[in-house]
Fold this sequence. Notes:
- This protein is of the alpha/beta class.
- The protein contains twelve helices and eight strands.
- Helix 9 (203-216) links the parallel strand 6 (193-198) and strand 7 (224-229).
- The protein is globular.
Amino acid sequence: WTGRHFSPSKCADMAKVTEKCFEESGRPCFICDFSPPRSGDGLVLQNADIPADFISIAYNPGRAVRVNSAMLAAAIKQHSGMDTIFTLATRDMNKLALQSQMLGAQVLDLENVVVVQGDPFGQRDQGVVKEVGDTHPTQFIAALRAMNQGIDFRGSQLRSPTSFCIGATADLGRDTDQEAALAVRKVEAGAEFFMTQPIFDVAEADKFLDSYRSKSGTDLSVPVFYGLQIMEKDGVIFSSVPESVREELEKGRSGVEIALELYRRFREHGLNNAYLMPPIRRGGARNYEAAQQVLAASKSL
Length: 301
């Protein structure tokens, strides 16, 4: 099968991120993170029944063997008719393989891609696998823009241009000026939206946008989906999580409640696009029910 076989009823509402973001629609927009499984069991499609605007398929979380992100995005789209995003890392493929995968994604009617570098392999991994590193994210973003104009990495004409909405990532927990400078280069290369790592203080968004303005001489003109992490007391808690949040979880406060309070601050501060990250439990399972709870409750805000 290919994406061309979708029924008209399911295809009618398919959209690019830039068509459903707050800046275009006037409505708050949610991207929900989704981890591909470590098996080819089709039952995973049931877990993707999440009422977000987009389901974003991660790329090999934990550097583990998992279902290909583009293939899973296409399967979810066919199964449920939902809009999807797939993540692609430059770490593991050369230019030929990356661009060939993108043509395959076009055949599957996938419109949205997020380009990342991919975490480096640890010392243990390096004994059994090697990074390719033929290109880096900013270069590949530029290459995707060229593909949208009908040109491949050799400068040759494609039979027809692609039509991808190109996303990039930003980590506001790192050095703000360096991250803003990198964001400027990504926008110049062709990035059309950003997704950030989790933030717990809306002031981080202000610092990033101010730094971007300082370095580019203009406001950031593409939508940013700010990371909204849902935590669980007995789940995986990252180093970036503030101590105050950790204490609330330890005292028994619901991670869903904490996330909704933070989302309320997002909205009050004008951050109307959110990248929702379901809790990660010990062993790597995700609590998508918590994401459903946050999405349902967010409608009343």
